[in-house]
């Protein structure tokens, strides 16, 4: 019986780990840049078929390097702009729940477009991980209202080149 419980527990752990693996880039991708995003997730109260609910609108965050220096911004698109003049727009290809139940999910995004010359020139993928906060408020809301929920995330930019 103990052996069976151990196997079941191991399966449950591997399933949880597999969920996080959905946002892990392929082995041929290497890290170009890692930044910390700090800002808000913006939600609008929208009428749905059953009730009014908070619906995601856009992120608005500042990006910081490992030394705490601001290096860019993140906003609607989703787009990441760096101070070197380069930017990328991403498209979600994988999603996994955050280990923190009160945080927005982890994401893997492929680059749909890029502009400017700089650090983002060869970026193929963007991963959002280590999220904190940002989840839409619960409960009733007034249609048309906006709210901003503070969040943090690690953004890692990858290239296969």
UniProtKB/TrEMBL annotation:
<protein>
    <recommendedName>
        <fullName>DUF3455 domain-containing protein</fullName>
    </recommendedName>
</protein>
<feature type="signal peptide">
    <location>
        <begin position="1"/>
        <end position="19"/>
    </location>
</feature>
<dbReference type="InterPro" id="IPR021851">
    <property type="entry name" value="DUF3455"/>
</dbReference>
<keyword id="KW-0732">Signal</keyword>
<dbReference type="Pfam" id="PF11937">
    <property type="entry name" value="DUF3455"/>
</dbReference>
């Amino acid at each position: 019986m103990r052996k069976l419980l151990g196997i079941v527990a191991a399966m449950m752990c591997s399933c949880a780990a597999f969920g996080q693996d959905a946002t892990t880039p392929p082995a041929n991708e290497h890290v170009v840049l890692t930044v910390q995003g700090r800002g808000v997730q913006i939600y609008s109260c929208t009428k749905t078929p059953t009730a009014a609910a908070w619906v995601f609108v856009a992120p608005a965050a500042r990006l910081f390097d490992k030394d705490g220096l601001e290096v860019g911004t993140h906003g609607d698109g989703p787009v990441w702009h760096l101070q070197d003049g380069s930017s990328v727009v991403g498209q979600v290809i994988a999603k996994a729940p955050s280990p923190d139940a009160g945080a927005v999910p982890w994401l893997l995004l492929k680059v749909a477009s890029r502009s400017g010359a700089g650090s983002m020139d060869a970026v193929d993928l963007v991963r959002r991980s280590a999220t904190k906060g940002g989840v839409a408020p619960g409960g009733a809301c007034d249609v048309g209202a906006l709210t901003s929920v503070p969040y943090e995330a690690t953004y890692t930019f990858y290239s296969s080149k």
